[in-house]
Structures are given as C-alpha cells and as structure tokens.
Amino acid sequence: METFIRNMPKAELHIHIEGSLEPELMFALAHRNGVRLPFASIDEVRNAYHFTDLQSFLDIYYAGAAVLRQEQDFYDLTWAYLERARGDNVRHTEIFFDPQTHTERGVPFETVVTGVHRALQQGERTLGITSNLILCFLRHLSAEAAMATLEQALPFREWIVGVGLDSSERGHPPAKFTNVFDRARSEGFVTVAHAGEEGPPDYIWQALDLLKVSRIDHGVRCEEDAQLIERLRRQQVPLTVCPLSNVKLRVFEHMGAHNLKRLLNLGLCVTVNSDDPAYFGGYINDNFIAAHQALGLHRDHVIQLSRNAFRATFLDVSAQQQLLDELARYVGESPY
Ligand code: HPA
Ligand code: ZN
For 278-323, how does the pLDDT look when each residue is reduced to its tens digit (9 = 90+)? Predict the structure, then answer.
C-alpha cells in the first residue's frame, strides 16, 4: 500500500509556500541576505518546532519568513517545494502565499508574486506540474488591510486564481471579511477559507454563506454539527484536510484520533494535503502514509482521496478529466 500511495498521481490543494521553507534553505537565505536568525543552528531550528496550538506555530512561521527578501528567494523557495512535489507524484498543485507577511516588512507585493510565479511556470515546463496560485489574507489583520492587499493583486490577476483566509482563526470569524470577499469575487477570483481548524463549526457556515467559498481549508470541526455535515455532503464541498498539521497543532491528540476516515466514510469530499510541510514533519506522501498507518485506510479510500482532489481543483473540466484518466490508468495497471 505504501508504494501504491507514493506512486499514485495526486493533487495538492493546501500548501502555504512559506510553510515549505526548510531550515537548510532558511539558513542559506539568512546568510545571502544578511538577516540574523534567532537560532544558532539548523538543529536548533528543528528543536524549536514543538507547538501547542496554531498561534505557537504561527509565531515561529512568521519569524522564519523574515529571511525572504528578494524575488530570487521566492523563486528558490517555490522551486524547492516543486521538486519535492514531483518526488511525491504531485501532478497539480494549488499554492497559498501570504503577501502581507512580506509587504509588512517592506518587501513589495510584485517581488513576492513574481518570484513564486516564475518558479511555477518553470515547474510546469520542466517538471510537468500544473499549478494555480491563491492569495491568502491574514485574518488577524484588519479587513481594510486585506482590501488594500486585494488592490495590490489586481495588476497580477492573470497569475492568481483565487483568494483565501489564513492565520489565527479564533476571534477572527469569516464575517470580518465579507466585503473583501465580495469584491474579490466581483473581480473574478474564486474563494476559499481556512475554517473549522481551531474555530467552531459556525465559522464553516460563515465561510460558505458569507464568503461563498468553493472549498473549506481544514474543516475538520464540521463533525460537531450534523446539519453542517449534511450540507457539506450534499454539495460535495471539498475539505482540504492536513493530517500531520492537525496532530502537530493538537487539533487531534494523535493520528489514531483523526476524523479523516470517518468524514470520508460519511461521503464528504475529503482531500489530503501538507499545509506547512517543513514545520509539520512531511510532504503530501508523508501525510497519506501517516494517515494510512494510523487509521487503516483501504486502497479504495486512498484512490477516493486522490479523485476528490482532482475534482476539487480550479482546473477546467477537461484538464480535471485528464488527471482523473491518468489516475484510472494507474489504478488499473497497479498490481496492488
Ligand atoms: N492555519 C492557519 N494559518 C496558517 C496555517 C494553518 O494551518 N498554516 C499557515 N498559516
Ligand atoms: Zn493552512
């Protein structure tokens, strides 16, 4: 089964590009840019990755992102992720970036988006990985700051498929961003939002009804609300679930307690993703395998997870069908 998982064609729909910054690259970029890090060594960085909740992670994640200064840094970061993704047989990826983490430090929006975009183009040409880019607003900052960020994105709208919402969830409900998301949709962007990771099921309702999202990022706390489960099932709203992240940030005490298999068995459109792979102990295959080992996923579960992800992409229907056909060929030819 592990070989079957590793070689299976897959799509990744929940990956923060800043969360793919491995300590080795963090140190290399700190050196290149003359940035002082609060860590003496790569080992010390890794040892700092013990989190108690979302906020304890975000504090370290934003500190690490301070080494990203030049367009080439964003290129190198994105390229390193794409090479890992290729190794995991990711055929299509939809990447989040957090422009406000950088513009707040004086790095121009254009520098960030150009570096990421250039790597994504190169990834399509040389690794055969197609991609979409999603701009996330930091929900701990104001709605006005989000609106200003959206306006900065408009000249680059051809490179950005949609907008999302991340950072500290509790106390920052989706409703805070209703106007920003209205404007984003009127400008032609699709919408997604982190909801129901640490926040209550009501935040998932708000994301659906106020922000009109096409997918929910995480969404695992939907399990507390039977009516919500029914809505998500009936409308086949994709949930971009991140198993290793949820265990690292103590949303679940251990992988055996994760609800991924239960949600899948209820008929929800669950997908598996890595979130912040450099911080949470692995990339997409590590997430599939950890969930499989702890929950006893069957072959049909694993295939369904990949099928769900291809259907949940923002690709057009014919591109989705090509990937689904590729998956069907893989399943048909696989000896397992
Ligand atoms: N949740 C909220 N914000 C984030 C996350 C997450 O899992 N990863 C990076 N920013
Ligand atoms: Zn996330």
Answer: 999 999 999 999 999 999 999 999 999 999 999 999 999 999 999 9
In this prediction, residues 42-57 reach a mean pLDDT of: 92
Neighbours of ion ligand 2 (CB under 5 A): 275
Question: CB within 6 Å of ligand 1 — which residues?
Answer: 16, 19, 54, 166-167, 194, 197, 245, 275-276
The reported pLDDT for the residue numbered 196 is 98
Beta bridge partners of 95: 15, 133
CA 207/CA 195 separation, integer angstroms: 7
3-state secondary structure at position 16 = strand
Domain around 61 = 2-333
Query: How many separate domains does the chain show?
Result: 1
Q: Which ligand is nearest to the CA of 12?
A: 2
The CATH number linked to 125 is: 3.20.20.140
Helix (H, G, I), strand (E, B) or coil at 10: strand
Has 83 been annotated as catalytic? no
Question: Which ligand lies nearest the alpha carbon of 17?
Answer: 1
**pLDDT for residue 208 is more than 80:** yes
CA dist., res. 275 & res. 279, Å (int): 9
CA distance 113 to 180: 20
Annotated catalytic residue, options 12, 22, 71, 197: 197
Mutate to test the pocket of ligand 1, among 21, 138, 275 (most ligand atoms within 8 A of CB): 275
Express each pLDDT in 155-187 by its tens digit.
999 999 999 999 999 999 999 999 999 999 999
Question: Taking the model in full, what pTM does it have?
Answer: 0.98
CB 130 within 8 A of CB 12: no
Amino acid at 73: D
Residue 334 has what pLDDT?
Answer: 84
